[in-house]
């Protein structure tokens, strides 16, 4: 892989859920050596520092956690993401998954200006397909994919400049989906694969057809990697642990396939809560996964695939 311009963008938001700690995520990635790991692969890495949320007068609403602050982060990150796309391949260091309320529409707006279709790969135990009207927890980190695909039920949020058609999204790693989310997903063409699908078919068989569709459309590909995609025995630093997740090897395979494809144009690293980590174990794993997506290999050539 030729060296790329990589842009690191910190998003220390911690408003998408009741349990706090993710605001320390960006600094944890810095301390774990994300910039150095990517520079060692030959990339040109710049760190733009941390985004700050917009100030607004939007009142909070009963049953929704920190609505006004979340909207402030959304509008700020929409601008920051679109701007960062013009500087290279951005890696958005979260912060909880509510950051994708801003990053996905932001990168999609950049793609739309280039007349390029935007695709999204969502690596997560959860579908994050609730709306403001369907969420029962009030945790807005469970809503970004519904918002980014243009679903209704986001009164008070700005209308995204660009949305991603549900048929151009793929979720891998599902093992916790609310009933309203299931009903809403069933009305769309979104691709959702749970851990049983991985067990039965293998992650490569699920991901490869999606990547072929992205390539055929000459699409931009945003990847959103949630810590809870990985089994908590390997990645404990997340407040939404769900047993039975991807192994370290499966997670690396996903990243290596992304690297092989050369299609990834932006990346979220979300839901790292350093308060719950074990001597930086999860932060280092997430750095290693980002490095796998951007060229780190055991050998100096792609591993041959068995036909």
Can you give a write-up of this model?
The protein has one domain (5-293): 3-Layer(aba) Sandwich (Arginase, Chain A). An 8-stranded parallel sheet has the order 2-1-3-8-7-4-5-6, with helices on both faces. Helix 7 (195-201) packs across helix 8 (203-216). With 307 residues, it is an alpha/beta fold. The longest helix is centred in the first third of the chain and has 19 residues, at 67-85. Helices cover 35% and strands 16% of the residues. The mean pLDDT is 95.
Summarize the structure.
The protein is 35% helix and 16% strand. By secondary structure, the chain is α/β, with parallel strands linked by helices. 51% of the residues are buried.
Low-confidence stretches: none
Main pleated-sheet profile: 8 strands, parallel
Strand content: 15-25%
CATH topology: Arginase, Chain A
Question: Could you name the key traits of this structure?
Answer:
35% helix, alpha/beta, globular, 10 helices, Arginase, Chain A, 8 strands, 307 residues, 8-stranded parallel sheet
């Amino acid at each position: 892989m030729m060296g790329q311009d990589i842009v690191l963008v910190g998003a220390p938001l911690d408003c998408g859920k009741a349990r706090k700690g993710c605001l320390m995520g960006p600094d944890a990635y810095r301390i774990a050596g994300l910039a150095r790991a990517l520079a060692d692969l030959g990339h040109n890495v710049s760190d733009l520092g941390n985004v700050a949320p917009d100030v607004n007068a939007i009142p909070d609403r009963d049953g929704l956690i920190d609505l006004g602050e979340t909207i402030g982060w959304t509008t700020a990150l929409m601008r920051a993401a679109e701007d960062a796309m013009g500087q290279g391949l951005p890696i958005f260091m979260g912060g909880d998954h509510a950051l994708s309320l801003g990053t996905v529409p932001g990168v999609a707006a950049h793609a739309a200006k280039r007349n390029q279709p935007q695709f999204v790969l969502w690596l997560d135990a959860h579908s994050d397909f609730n709306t403001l009207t369907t969420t029962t927890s009030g945790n807005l980190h469970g809503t970004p994919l519904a918002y980014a695909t243009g679903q209704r039920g986001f009164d008070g949020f700005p209308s995204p400049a660009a949305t991603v058609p549900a048929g151009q999204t793929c979720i891998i790693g599902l093992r916790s989906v609310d009933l309203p989310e299931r009903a809403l997903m069933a009305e769309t063409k979104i691709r959702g694969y749970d851990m049983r699908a991985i067990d039965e078919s293998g992650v490569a068989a699920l991901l490869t057809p999606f990547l072929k569709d992205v390539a055929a459309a000459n699409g931009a590909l945003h990847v959103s990697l949630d810590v809870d995609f990985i089994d908590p025995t390997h990645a404990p630093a997340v407040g939404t642990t769900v047993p039975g997740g991807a192994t370290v090897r499966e997670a690396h395979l996903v990243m290596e396939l992304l690297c092989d494809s050369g299609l990834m144009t932006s990346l979220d690293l979300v839901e790292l809560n350093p308060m719950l980590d074990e001597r930086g174990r999860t932060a280092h794993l997430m750095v290693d996964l980002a490095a796998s997506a951007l060229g780190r290999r055991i050998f100096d050539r792609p591993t041959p695939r068995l036909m």
